[in-house]
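ok so i was messing around last nite and threw this chain in just to see what happens. nothing serious, just curious
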Amino acid sequence: MELAYPLNSTSLQSIPIRSATTSIVMLRNGAMALGVTGLLLFGMSQLIATDLQEPPVEESPTIAPIHLPELKPTVIRDTRVAKPQELPPPMTPSTVDRTLDPGDMPIVFQPPTTTGTKVDTSIVTADPMPIYKPAPRYPRRAMAKGIEGYVVVEFTISKNGSVKNPSVVGAYDASGAPTDVFNHSALRAVERFKYRPTVVDGKPVEKHGVRNRISYKLAD
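result:
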């Protein structure tokens, strides 16, 4: 059978050239593969041939044995003998006279009686009695200086128990020296005093010349 187209001489010559190039490339790749494989095998053989050893272990220092002395408990015994207590002397029995001698005591029963007597209020007499005595205020000036003392106040108790006309009779500090630092406070306190008034013959009366001592002392 004849071909419709004539063969080209150029194409026929190029086929052998391509086949030679491919062979060279394959040979080169094979050589590289062999070289890499050889290197890997060599490296593995070197790793296997290496003589790996465990690092040396340092020995711990030797501790000398500890010897504790033998401990014995100390017991202190009291060898003293307690002195026996002396018995009290026996009690002498006392005799009791159980005989009763009835006396001559008359017993009279009478019904209660009422006389109807009343207390006469005209004869009742009573002195004044304090009902309300508030504590005085400590003056600031005396407190700041640490002054202590007392005040004697004289006044009149009225018929209703209130205080009238208070006045200072004497005022002294703790050393006995006269002072007026407490006068105002004492008078203000006495003005608020309340008393049960004096009663004479059953009637309240005024009581003059009543004195009261008011002391001022700082707390400890």
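not much to say yet. The beta strands are 129-132, 149-157, 163-173, 194-196, 198-200, 203-205, 207-216.
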